[in-house]
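Pipeline run #58 for the internal structure catalog. This entry was flagged by the ingest filter as a single-chain record with no existing model, so it goes straight to prediction. Upstream metadata was stripped on purpose; only the residue string is passed forward. Reviewer on rotation: M.T. Logging verbosity set to normal.
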Amino acid sequence: MIPCFEKYAGLYLPPDMIEALTRNPQAVYDVCNGVGSTANAFGRLTYHLIPSTLWGLSVEASADIHDWMYSRPSGTLADKQEADRVFLNNMLRQIAMADSWLGKLLGPLRRRRALAYYEAVNAFGGPSFWSGKNRVTAMYGIQTA
């Protein structure tokens, strides 16, 4: 396995992210920042307060995939919803793969927190997703000099 793929073992990776990790992993690392947003002032504040773990289980890989999907240069509301669902699904996969006795014991708490993270990005992830997309000039076909 290619070293940069080990982090994402067992998770859904979009085809364009697989290609980027194969050709230029730094391009992926440049847009992935773990859990939380840095798109605005509030996001930068909360970025340092939101843990990237679910009761001790790191979900940074799931967050990286979510960041990658949000960073695509174009997008629709359906694309945002897909990215948010992939985030939840990947976190649930990570919880299921934590098969130690402690992982099984903490599974219900981790699933509850994963759902809370999903609900947060679903409700409040808009500014991060739409950042740099749908500029007025593009939306109305305005040509600039």
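catalog note: The first strand starts at residue 53 and ends at 54.
catalog note: The first helix runs from residue 3 to 6.
status: ready for reviewer M.T.
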